[in-house]
Amino acid sequence: MIYIKHLRYNKSQGIVSLIFVSFILFILASLTLFSARINLADIRMAHLSQETHKAYYAANTGIDYAIAWLSEPSHQPNWQYQDQQRWADLQISALGSGAQNYQVNIQYQQQYFPKISPYIFIKASAYADNQSHIKAQQSIWVTDKLPLLNEAAKNIPPIINHACIETESVYPGFNQQGEPLPYAYASANTECVHQQHQFISDLNDPWSYLVNARLDRETYKKLAQQESVRPVSARRFFYVDAAKIQQKIWQPEAQVLGTPEQQVFIYFPAQAACPKLQNVTLYALVFIEGDCDASQWQQVEIVGALVVNGKLNNLNKQTEIYSLSHHHLGATLEIAGIGVHRILGSWRDF
Question: Rounded to two decimals, what is the model's pTM?
Fold first, then answer.
C-alpha cells in the first residue's frame, strides 16, 4: 500500500515538472518570435530610412538642377514668369541611387513683394519608383539678381540671398510584427538662410536695402566708408579697394569676419583685381567683380556665398566653401569629394 502511494506521488510530480518545462519553453519561444518580429520591423524601418535619405538627396539634386537650368542664358526669360497663379514645370529624367530610381518633379513660380526684388519659388519632390509612399520634398526661394550686379545682371545666374529649405519625408510605419500600418509617418524640417531676422526683412535695415531695394555701387561704397570707423565686429559692409591690398594679398582687420547668425558683405571692385586670401574665415557674401585665379588661396573658409562676376579658376583644396544651409549655427555638413560644397551664390561651373 505504501509502495502504490509512492508511485502516485512520483507520477504527479513528473506531470507538474513537464507542465513547468513546457511553460518555460513556450515563454522562450514567444520571446524569440517577438524579438525576431521587432528586429524585422527595425530592419524594414532602417531600410525605409535609407531610402528616404536617398529621396532627400534626389530632391536636393532637383533643386540644383532647376537653378542650373534657369541660369542658362537662353532660359533667363523664364525668370520673368508673370502669371503668379500658375506653376511652371521643369522636366528631369529619373535619378538613380543604387538599385532605386527616383522620379523628380520640379516646379517654379515667380512671386512679387512690394518694394522688394522679384523672387522665384522652386520646389522639387522626389518619389521612389517602386515605392510611391516614399518621397522627399525641398523648396527654396531665389532672387534673380543682386543690386550691385545690376550693370551685368543679364549676364549672371540667379543668386540666393534669402532662402528657406523645407524638407518633408513621408514613409509608411510598421507594427511590431513588421506589418505595414494603414497610415504613414511624416517628418518635416525647415532650415532658413536669413540675412536678417525674418524672411522678408525690415526695409529699414541696411542689409535689406542692399538685397531688396537695389542699392547701387556708389551708395554701397559710401555706406562701407561710414562703417569703417566702427569696430570690426560691428561692421556689416566691407569695401576692399586696391589700396588695401599689398602684393596682391588682402589682410583683413580680423581673421574671422561675420558670424553664422550675422553674415557680412565683402566687395572687391574691379580695380582690386583678384586678391589672394590667406588664413581667413568669412561668414559672408563675397563679391569679386573681376576674373579670379584662386590657385594661391591658402586656408580659406567661406561660409555663405562666393560670387564672381568674371571667371573663377583653379580653386584649390585649401579653400572650403559652405552654404549657410549646410552650416546652420556652426553645424557644418561635410560632403566627401572636392572642397566646394553647395554654394549659395552664382552657381558658376567651378
Answer: 0.51
